[in-house]
Amino acid sequence: MKILVTGGAGYIGSHTVIELQAAGHEVVVVDNLVNSNLTALKRVEQISGKAVPFLEADLRDRAAMERVCGSYCFDCCVHFAGFKSVGESVSQPWKYYDNNITGTLVLLDVLGKTGCKNLIFSSSAAVYGEPEIIPVTEECPRGQCANPYAQSKFMLEQIMMDLQKADPEWNMVLLRYFNPIGAHKSGMIGEDPRGVPNNLMPYITQVAVGKLEKLSIFGDDYDTLDGTGVRDYIHVVDLAKGHVKVLDSIEGQCGLEIFNLGTGVGYSVLDVVKSFEKVNDVKIAYEIKERRAGDIAVCYSDPGKAQRVLGWKAEYGIEDMCRDSWNWQKNHPNGFKD
Ligand code: NAD
Ligand code: WQD
């Protein structure tokens, strides 16, 4: 299939482009590089041995989107582009709503008008808020979103549901990712956050490489086995492969489907730290701090629907995730600047 990948230079997008190309798909990336680096796509080309046609453009630039969609006649769009920092979304909500909502509205309009009505959307477990059911199934009601980032995903899901109801020719697949970590096994691409990382794994790898002094563990008084927060960490390559599985089933199937992409296993912050130390033979200095505002105690998925319907199941475990995250960071202490 001919596939438009928005945000394909980013962390999850770049790993997904590799898997899409390996599965024989023709990929075109649109990204404005606001949170990524062109080097990532150059490395993808080295890994896959195939060119990645790339257009540097903002999704909100309707003329640019019309040009690219008009000239390629895509079969499907895998839509990653958007802002994702929870803290920044709280301090700059307008910026988040404008980029995530306006960008997607333009994209959907242009795709529809150019005859591409197959879409795979990067949603998030964040739409469950504080989940009512653990493990979280797709039937779990979407909750009170804790921040404008999560709210933007919630709103975009709703927009897609309404659009698909009004025009049943659309195939929409909403993928709710849990906590992606890890990196490609080559160590050539990985997560490269700007500034001080907000998420656990990039913080740990930057402590390990000596860029940060110690990890702050946000709370050890949750109602969990060791008191630290529990999450469903998923290897980014497993996540990327999930998109390929969706594509295998998307054609000729009008409707809207929602899938959790997670492993179904919850690990605490201390589990992750210990696992990282063990597989990589490095020490991670840490201290226990206050809980982080907006955090929940436990969140992990029931990934059964993706297995039943798509035949997809995460294959990598926490040790693989820790090993591959470190392999990327130790070879590239300054991310794509190295
Ligand atoms: P990322 O920031 O690495 O990638 C997003 C890419 O989109 C970047 O390359 C950025 O330059 C690009 N982009 C942003 N706004 C754009 C615009 N208006 N026009 C064109 N390009 C634009 O993030 P990621 O971790 O790869 O996440 C990809 C998607 O998955 C996002 O939508 C994110 O919300 C979602 N998601 C991420 C996580 C996570 O923890 N990483 C979890 C759940 C969902
Ligand atoms: C994981 C655990 C923290 C950093 C976020 C978004 C969510 C989704 C994934 C996009 C928690 C603890 C963290 C640190 C710590 N993104 N922690 N010290 O909060 O589960 O989810 O990323 O959709 O929307 O909210 O991920 O990696 O920030 O935290 O102790 O320096 O690690 O308290 O228990 P989170 P995270």
Would you kindly provide a written description of the structure presented here, covering whatever features stand out?
This protein has helices spanning 11-22, 38-48, 62-72, 86-91, 93-113, 148-166, 200-208, 236-250, 269-280, 304-310, 318-331; strands at 2-6, 26-31, 54-56, 76-79, 118-124, 171-177, 179-181, 215-218, 230-231, 233-235, 255-261, 267-268, 286-289, 298-299. It is α/β, with parallel strands linked by helices and 338 residues long. The strands form four sheets. Strands 3-2-1-4-5-6-11 form a seven-stranded parallel sheet, with helices on both faces. Strand 2 (26-31), helix 2 (38-48) and strand 3 (54-56) form a beta-alpha-beta unit. It is globular. The model has no long low-confidence stretch (mean pLDDT 97). The site of UDP-4-deoxy-4-formamido-beta-L-arabinopyranose (WQD) has 19 residues, from helix 7 and strand 8. Residues 7, 9-13, 31-36, 58-60, 80-82, 84, 99, 103, 122, 124, 177, 180 line the site of nicotinamide-adenine-dinucleotide.
Portion of residues in beta strands equals 15-25%
Alpha-beta classification: alpha/beta
The helical percent reads: 40-55%
Please summarize the sheet with the most strands: 7 strands, parallel
Contiguous helical run count: 11
Number of strands: 14
Oligomer: single chain
Mean pLDDT: 97
Low-confidence stretches: none
Give the ligands present: nicotinamide-adenine-dinucleotide, UDP-4-deoxy-4-formamido-beta-L-arabinopyranose
Radius of gyration: 19 Å
Overall 3D geometry?
globular
The order of strands across the largest sheet is: 3-2-1-4-5-6-11
Write the element-wise H/E pattern from the N-terminal end onward: EHEHEHEHHEHEEHEEEHEEHEEHH
Q: How far do the termini sit from each other? A: 34 Å
